[in-house]
Structures are given as structure tokens and as C-alpha cells.
Amino acid sequence: MSGRISRSRQVSGTSRISEEQINDLIIKLQQLLPELRDSRRSDKVSAARVLQETCNYIRNLHREVDDLSERLSELLANTDTAQAALIRSLLTL
After folding, report:
1. What is the pLDDT of residue 42?
2. How many structural domains is the chain composed of?
């Protein structure tokens, strides 16, 4: 058992995630990331790389959301009131 884990278990009253659970979560994250999803099981990808790619992916998603929101705002501003109302009603479904 590593020193980190043995020290963390000394803290009473808190639940800790095991190293195996962390590894499972890292593998699940890797499967969600387009950049790393196609890596073969035999290809070892470090946890640090998976976490870095996760951060990059989330940043990119935020940028896409911002861009789409801006485009939608422009679309709504340039359409007549009836069409804008229809688009808004579709978005709230």
C-alpha cells in the first residue's frame, strides 16, 4: 500500500476512495473523451493525461456552448416575433 493511501486512512470519520476505484473512474473518463476513447486497452494512458484531456474537453464544450448561445441570440434577434416565439417554445420542451 502506498504512503498516500495509508496516510489517508488515518483520517477518522471520512470515507476514502480506494486506488482501484480511482483507476476505474479514470478508465471511465478515458472512454468518454473523443481524443482517448479509441486507445486500445493495451495502450497505457497516464491518469494525468486523462485528467488533462478531460479539462481540455470541458473547456472546449464550454466554448461550443457559448458560441451556440451567441448564434442563437443572433438568430432570435434577426427573426420576426412569431418565429422567435416558436423557437423559444421548442427550446423549452
Report:
1. 56
2. 1
